[in-house]
Design goal:
single chain, 5-stranded antiparallel β-sheet
Length: about 325
């Protein structure tokens, strides 16, 4: 079931050592250097996470798995660990991700369920986790200037251009940090990382990069998904339903402002990440998602005077 024998020979040897056998099927390689395989073992299936090219990601994944599970979030159970070689044997949460199911008729129901999961995630233990602080927010957004404008589009920026980008990044960071902080942030809570199981129960994957940060980060990752979009007014209504469910006391306008600027931070960052994935890592599929990312930045940004200089710069540059 798998042709790349060289890559998985070490996995077969490890499975033999821990008395597992069966056929292996490639599932995917994600945006990182991890690969995933499905192991058919008897009448059951399990998932093999191959982080042999990124072994340092295993310990955070294990740590965050335990934190989330303790908060009642459905995450893959870890059956076996091989930290030396970079392998984990995980529970199989199935092959139906939320993206494959979402449509105009069901998105509000599914998003409401996912918002309930965000509230559980935010109750997870955050002791000793890395913060989503100002320095990190800025460093993420700077990827846009370097990789998207500079390397991918090969644009030459003058001092006034750079000043506009610096001002915008700083302003966005100020607004993001003005909202409540200190909750567990998955950091990639979108429809491809939410698995839909029997009975429409939701399982969460790809949580190894979690940090402590702002209340709207995972919410905007979900509702302003870069792979699918729905009516803006309904999305804002769903965002406000999170506010109500979580017990926050803040008016609609201010909460949506927090939500919008958190999305702008994320989408500006993602422009750089998608360009870097293509140019540095040879993962060209993400380039197709840049137009949607730009649409979010322009559509949402046009509502706020703080974003006008950057949007005018984009127009000048032909972005």
């Amino acid at each position: 079931m798998h042709s790349n024998k060289y890559r998985i020979d070490p996995i077969y040897r490890w499975l033999k050592d821990i008395s597992f056998d069966g056929d292996i099927e490639t599932i995917s390689a994600d945006a990182s250097f991890r690969s995933y395989y499905r192991l058919y073992h008897g009448n059951s299936t399990k998932i093999i996470m191959d982080s042999s090219r990124q072994k340092e990601s295993l310990t955070p994944f294990i740590d965050m798995t335990y934190r989330l599970s303790s908060a009642g979030v459905t995450v893959p159970y870890i059956y076996e660990k091989n930290l030396n070689d970079g392998f984990l044997l995980l529970e199989d949460l199935g092959s139906r991700d939320l993206l494959s199911l979402l449509d105009e008729q069901n998105y509000q129901s599914y998003y409401s369920k996912a918002i309930d999961e965000i509230i559980k995630i935010q109750r997870s233990d955050t002791a000793d986790m890395l913060p989503y602080d100002r320095e990190f927010l800025i460093s993420e957004m700077e990827l846009m200037q370097r990789w998207y404008l500079g390397v991918y589009l090969e644009l030459e920026l003058d001092k006034s251009d750079l000043d506009i980008i610096k001002y915008t990044i700083s302003t966005i960071s100020d607004i993001v940090l003005s909202q409540p902080q200190g909750v567990f942030v998955h950091r990639d809570f979108h429809s491809r990382n939410i698995m839909v199981q029997d009975g429409d129960r939701l399982g969460i994957i790809d949580h190894q990069d979690a940090r402590v940060g702002a209340i709207t980060y995972d919410l905007v990752s979900l509702l302003r998904d870069l792979y699918i979009s729905f009516d803006r007014s309904q999305i804002e209504r769903l965002a406000l339903s999170y506010r109500d469910k979580s017990g926050l006391v803040v008016d609609d306008e201010l909460f949506i402002r927090w939500f919008d600027f958190m999305g702008l931070q994320r989408h500006i960052k993602v422009l750089g990440i998608f360009a870097r994935l293509s140019i540095r890592d040879g993962k060209d599929g993400y380039i197709d998602d840049i137009p949607q990312t730009l649409r979010y930045i322009k559509d949402i940004g046009s509502s706020y005077s703080e974003m006008r200089p950057l949007l005018d710069l984009f127009d000048k540059l032909g972005v």
